[in-house]
Every structure is written in structure tokens, then in C-alpha cells.
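User: Predict the complex with N-(5'-phosphopyridoxyl)-D-alanine.
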Amino acid sequence: MREIYVNGQYLSEENAKVSVFDRGFLFADGIYEVTSVLDGRLIDFDGHFERLERSMAAIEMKLDIKKEALLEMHRQLLVRNSLNEGLIYLQVTRGAAERDFAFPPVNTKKTIVAFTQEKSLIKSKDAKRGLKIITLEDMRWGMCDVKTVQLLYPSLAKMQAKSQGADDAWLMRDGLITEGTSNNAYIVTNEGVIVTRDLSPQILSGITRKAVLQCAKDLQIKIEERAFTPEEAANAKEAFVTSATTFVMPVIEIDGKAIGKGEPGPIAKKLREIYIEESLKSAI
Ligand code: PDD
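Assistant: Here is the predicted structure with N-(5'-phosphopyridoxyl)-D-alanine placed in the model:
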């Protein structure tokens, strides 16, 4: 059974509990991060920590745990749960208080919870096969650059994709793809240019996105950060998504139409390989 971190303590799953008055539960008033783990070490901990601070500042919350302490907690979780490959989920909420739309006093104790989850990240059937995606209207709120725990719409979109025999959905605002339900979206044009939506409040600034774009630059692949349509994606040479839990994952079909040859493309495969190689080198 796993040991879970709850507010400074490591507790067994059955004892790991938070209050029913927690604002994370009542208002989705909280921020989360997912850090991948390879070889018992953390991938891009610094990037996740910086984004956590940024997301919290955006919803007027201050993180009162130091980076070193948070890193030590992540490491403790890895050791206590003998996690070699998978992820650490971290959630910070504004804490428990009488239900009120107005925030409780700033000195209210925040709730910090973290747990490990085993997952085979490198050897992935999905990566071999490639994902089938559908497009759906992006009905999320307007601050998608803030990693809040309000994930109901992405969850509904994922279920909609599954009910249509696909794996995931790409979301659209004004006819243009923003991102996937829980990943950033990319196409490779017939000229070999990688296109991905530019950073704005309409998408999450992926930690994997930043690292993968750097890998692409190192390979001297041209990158355009701009919006694209589902039609452009359907006619692209390749497509893929990135996230902490998928790394680089090829996309082979959009709305029932094969992309390129309908199989994982060479650029996606190469980037996946290099991203994993670099991550293993820099993991802490
Ligand atoms: N999701 N866009 C959205 C909407 C996401 O939820 C995520 C991550 C990403 C990719 O970000 P990163 O590369 O930092 O993981 C983009 C995580 C993995 C999740 O919710 O499980």
C-alpha cells in the first residue's frame, strides 16, 4: 500500500484524509503539478516548481513551503514507495474553511497532498501505435495557463473521445486548436516545420513542451509557434502531443482521417527518443 504525503505527514492510503470543508473539494480552489519519474529520479523538478509558484500567484495563493523542502518530500515519496517509473502528483489547495465564495483569511492553513503513481512511461503501447484523436469545442475557462484542479471539462472531452473509439480530444476555440485535454498539441507540416500553439492564457505552458522544443531546435528543425486549424492538422505530415506522462506521443488520426501514413512519424519518434535520453541525463 502507498504512503501518501498529507500536510507534513506520510500516511497510509486509508489514513490519508482531508476535510470535507477543503476548498479544493468545494470550489476546485487549488493548483496541481505532475512530475514524471524515471529511474527513481525526478524529471524537470525545477520547471514544475516554477510553474506551481506561477499558478498559485495567479489565483492569489502563496506557497509557504520552500523549494528544497518540496524536493525532499518528493524524494521521500519515491523512497517510501520504491517508485522507479511513474509520476508524483502534487496538489495545494487554499485549505479548509466555512463555505464562502470569498477567500478565507490569508493565514488559513493550505492543504498539501502528494502521492506516487506507477506508470510505464518509456515502454508504452500508445507510443508504438500512435493516438487517434477527435476535435471538440474548448469549453474550459479563460485561464488555461493556470494549472488548477478544475478538470471536469477535459475529463468529459476525454470520455467523448473514448465513446467515439478515439483515445483523446484536441480542443478548439474559434476554429483553431488550442491543446489536448491534458497535453500540448503539435503538427509537422509537409515542409517539415513543427507547428504548435503560441503561449497565452488559452493553453498550459507545458514543461515537456519547453524541453521538446529545445530538442527540436538542437536538431535544427524549424518551429512555428502559432494557431492551426483541424484541417491543417488532417493534411499534415505528422502530429504528436507532449506532457509529463506521455513525453512525446505520436498522433495518427484526427476526426477519423489518417494523418500522413497513419502511423507514428519519424520526427515524433526521434523527438521522443531524444527527450527520454536528455531527461535521463538531467533527472535529479
Ligand atoms: N497534464 N496542457 C494541459 C491542459 C495539461 O493538463 C498538461 C499536463 C499539459 C502538458 O504539461 P506538462 O508538459 O507540463 O505535463 C498541457 C498533466 C500531465 C495531467 O493533468 O496529468
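The pocket of N-(5'-phosphopyridoxyl)-D-alanine is lined by residues 34, 179, 182-184, 204, 206-209, 242-245 (CB under 6 Å).
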